[in-house]
Amino acid sequence: MEGRLNRYRSEVEAEVQQNILDFWMKYTRDEKSGGFYGFIANDLTIHSTADKGLVLYARILWSFSMAYRQLKEEKYLLMAQRAYDYLLAHFIDEEFSGAYWMVNYKGKVVDSKKQVYGVAFCIYAFTEYYMATTEKKSLDMAIELYHVLEEKSRDQKEGGYFEAFSREWQPLDNMSLSEKDMNCAKSMNTHLHVMEAYTNLLRVWREEWVENSLRELIHITVDRIIDADTKQFQLFFDGEWNSLAHIVSYGHDIEGSWLLYEAAEVLGDEELLAKVEPIVLAMAQKVYDDGMDKTHGGLFNEANENHIDTDKIWWVQAEAMVGFLNAYQLSGKEHFLEASINVWEFCRKYIIDKSRGEWFWKSFADGTTSMETEKVGPWKCPYHNSRACFEVIKRIDALLNR
Prior knowledge:
Layout: H1 2-27, E1 52-53, H2 54-71, H3 74-91, E2 102-103, E3 109-111, E4 114-115, H4 116-133, H5 136-152, E5 164-165, E6 186-187, H6 188-204, H7 208-225, E7 236-237, E8 248-249, H8 250-267, H9 270-291, E9 302-303, E10 308-309, E11 312-313, H10 314-331, H11 334-351, E12 362-363, H12 383-401
Antiparallel strand pairs: 1-2, 2-3, 4-5, 6-7, 8-9, 9-10, 11-12
Helix pairs in contact: 1-12, 2-3, 2-4, 2-12, 4-5, 4-6, 6-7, 6-8, 7-8, 8-9, 8-10, 9-10, 10-11, 10-12
């Protein structure tokens, strides 16, 4: 067992340094217009005039801040600083607070809506950058964004956070996060990542306000978002928390299982942590039972009453590596460790691009790789896969030390 864990650790350590981070440093810096390119095709064709997304920039900032914290190499700090400077200069709304959703390649705003999901990622990124650099302005920005979410987007009556607003924080007719997401008042995805952001904020700003906000988010996740019978996330809701769709997202379920436990752990509420632990283990077990491809390896994408989407999406595999390893740490059940290693082996064979670098967007059920989707884009960022590697390293170190 020790040998397998050491091998797993060394492989992901090499992956994050020699492939993922190196790819982003080598190909993505926009030396002409500033910041990073908004879109790079799978064949590495650079779309130099593509729009630049808030989520992409926040996730680059988080990834390279974490990389610098863990690896202490100046090159990672320089990448984080580049993302940080561009976010402040082009995405942060100095007049109404919050962050714009999209700018063009020259940094001019083309979509000024305030998507709560995107603002949450800024909090996540700014707090990580603060931990890497002790840059006070970065913490101040995270605190400012926390306050604006609490003031403008929190539902004071039913709890939780509404999805999106205009630049001036007025209601919108269309609040959907992306083309594939339902236009609804509240979503699992936004609440998952607000919880993730507030967890990181609490690490560096131990205020009762944040503790209360995070505690409420954990309760909302457990009581409103997780289906009590199936132990799976419900994805879309109206303002009163009525579920609007019956879709299972295996990637979000396994990601949410470890982020939920982490939130309760950082909060430090032992009673709540004891309540959460069996729930996250049940979530991981349900994903293991229903979502793992027992024939070809890897984790399926999602399912509804009539169909299973058997595609193997890059971020779903990354989160499965962490979520199953977390379940093994909590339970000691070896099938969870086997599942984590299984998914990593699937990534090594079918998801990692060994010729051009980084990870393919997806492979199909049998491992055939999809060559059509991008390497860099509004949603294709270094956060899921780099974070998976850093989490696996940290967790294996804890297991070996224990």
